[in-house]
Amino acid sequence: MPIKLIIDTDPGVDDSMAILAAFNSPEVEILGLTSIYGNVPTPMATRNALTLCHLAGRSDVPVVEGAHKSLRGVAKERIADFVHGSDGFGNTNPPLAEASPAPGSAAEFIVRCAREHPGEVVVLALAALTNVALALHLDPQLPEKLNRLVVLGGAFNVNGNVNPAAEANIFGDPDAANVVFSRVPNCYVVGLDVTHQCKITARQLDGLQGRGRHGTFLRSISQFYLGYHRRVYDMEAVYVHDTAALAAVVDPALFDWEEGGVVVVTDGPAKGRTIRDEGHKRWVGTNEWQGLPAIKVALGVRSERLVSWVLDRMAR
Q: Does 280 qualify as catalytic in the annotation?
């Protein structure tokens, strides 16, 4: 049976890649998209998610709007228009779907789906974890009802991408990340440790032109994104982030997973840093990691296989 999937998203070029790849993946049944701030503000994320569903011919899939601010009530400090363009689609300004989001909140939608399909739903969280934390507040037993939570976020043994300490999604709401990592044992975290090992080259992006239902669209929106990688990383390629997390939903064996409790720094210059207890020592005294669930963190990846899988799913 296909995996029942909720995608919590802030589209975003890389989110668009993952969402359209998911619609092209028979292994998953998309129950809905929930929107959140990050690459773009929440209302734009909702609009873009509706447009992606329309492009996929799946306007039947509900899009539910999520939080506009972090758990502390703070708006996103930095919108990544310099990465994804002012429209989230690489400044291509495609026609937008004339549709409205489904009623209710993202957190309510996650809780309802988990209740209706106990043990079957996977939440793929591609942005700040505010919606997931709010869902846990609504239903403290949510982890027992979910099959898995797959999180795109974190930088454990590498530098971040907001600053040397922090990855963007965790930085967006570190308090929410601490809530989630402390309460969801069936959590799989895919961060920069592995996504920075996976690259799609400029030539491979050009190869999407004219392929499948969405290849031309994805090639077009990726050009601004590619320009960002040229300026910042000095490479003719883009990192594979969101679609790597989708791959973790479909084929977790593509990754090497290490377990341990994770604490997120919530203030100061290292805000958003993810720190895992590697489990190599029996600690004397108490610390914040004791009693936390041993969540799974991806620290290795079969990068060539993953990139090949991603390109195939985007070009179908």
A: no
